[in-house]
Specification:
The chain contains 16 helices and nine strands. With 396 residues, the chain is an alpha/beta fold.
Length: 396
């Protein structure tokens, strides 16, 4: 499809046959024998996953979740040859600041459901109406309803950032702020270069040293940074299997993710258990079982397990090429807007490494939450955005 500036309304409406097929596959699953201990040291325990899959088949109400998703205005537009799905919720406050929210992996636009109300209508949620935002939440290409991916190359996050900048222009937002984590954090960081002069400020959660790089030297670190660095070093040794697989052989993995809902469930549930608040023993203790299964269902119904693995493969290659050549396209010399960072309890960010020059204008560290703060600790994320972005509102 050729690009037009047309913005088309969209509603989530999974066909009944797809729901029937999912339930049939879940109830006919072929389960492996579990050897060794019953803990998480070898991956998701069979007993836990069987019980979660049974709830997905017979307790989880997708139609209720679908109704909740459709309470927010959704649209699709075509940019650079690719259909992009997004939520666009305008604030009732006339002075609201446009804010672009970008999700990561294994997340989706649904990550942000709990922050939409407080961000767009703070008056109705016990906040100051002067902190209101117009919120735009795209689905990354290859994720959710920004599928199918029409051509290779969308793992290049600069291309994604340029598309998101064009999306904001189509919506009438010449100046805006941006927030994101994980892949969405990478897109957010590139937006000032992809949309020069238009980004008022960027805010990211959970940035960390590049995980395939060397271990962090613990000498000279504060107690808090040392604890995070120790966890980061352990993660390098024991937590990168998913990244190695998706960044080297995504297609081999894709067949399992696209054909087996049990495989897709395990692939995502493990990350929700490992990357959420350390105080949460199980994924649903951090985000709620229905929200977890909404995320998994979106990956299943849209085939995003396979396509997102391809995106990670391309993105990793683009990153490694840049790292090996040192070519940043002149970006490092560009003046950047104010940057904000929020570090949550499960994050591995060491400020002494992530911000050695003290260039970050706003740095917050929290003792709750993790990789999915909009779901885990929406109050903390909303509060941090309100505080940080008050200083830039006059430039919108």
């Amino acid at each position: 499809m050729d690009d037009t500036t047309e913005i088309r309304p969209f509603r989530v409406d999974v066909p009944p046959a797809d729901l029937d097929d999912l339930r049939d596959r879940l109830t006919r699953a072929r389960w492996p024998r579990q050897t060794g201990g019953a803990g998480w040291e070898r991956g998701v325990p069979a007993g836990y996953l069987r019980e979660l899959a049974a709830y997905w088949a017979d307790g989880f109400d997708w139609r209720a979740q679908e109704k909740a998703l459709n309470e927010h205005p959704q649209f699709v537009t075509t940019i650079d040859g690719q259909d992009l799905h997004f939520l666009h919720v305008r604030s009732p406050e006339p002075g609201a600041l446009p804010l672009l929210l970008s999700h990561g992996w294994p997340g989706s636009f649904a990550d942000f459901l709990d922050v939409i109300g407080p961000l767009t209508d703070p008056r109705a949620h016990g906040g100051d109406p002067a902190d209101a935002f117009h919120v735009v939440i795209p689905s990354l290409p290859g994720f959710g309803f920004s599928n199918p991916v029409r051509e290779p190359g969308w793992g290049n996050l600069f291309r994604v950032a340029a598309a998101f900048g064009e999306l904001m222009r189509r919506l009438g937002y010449e100046r805006f702020a941006a927030q994101g984590g994980d892949i969405g954090g990478g897109v957010t960081a590139l937006l000032p270069m992809a949309a020069p002069g238009r980004v008022l400020a960027t805010h990211v959660n959970g940035p960390s040293p590049y995980p395939l790089g060397p271990a962090v030297d613990l000498d000279g670190l504060s107690a808090a940074d040392r604890e995070r660095a120790e966890r980061f070093n352990a993660f390098r040794l024991d937590g990168l299997g998913y990244l190695h697989q998706q960044s080297t052989r995504p297609r081999t993995l894709a067949y399992s993710l696209n054909d087996s809902p049990i495989g897709q469930l395990a692939w995502i549930a493990e990350k929700f258990r490992e990357w959420t608040d350390p105080a949460a023993a199980l994924p649903e203790d951090a985000v709620g079982r229905d929200r977890l299964l909404t995320t998994v269902s979106l990956y299943w119904f849209t085939g995003s397990g396979a396509s997102s693995a391809d995106i990670l493969y391309e993105g990793m290659r683009a990153y490694l090429e840049m790292a090996s050549t040192g070519d940043q396209g002149g970006w490092s010399a560009m003046p950047l807007p104010p940057q904000g960072v929020a570090v949550f309890a499960a994050d591995l960010t060491v400020r002494a490494l992530a911000d050695p020059a003290g260039a970050v204008a706003h740095w917050s560290e929290f003792d709750r939450g993790g990789h999915f703060p909009a779901m885990e600790t929406p109050d903390l994320l909303v509060g941090d955005l309100r505080t940080f972005l008050r200083a830039v509102r006059g430039g919108a």
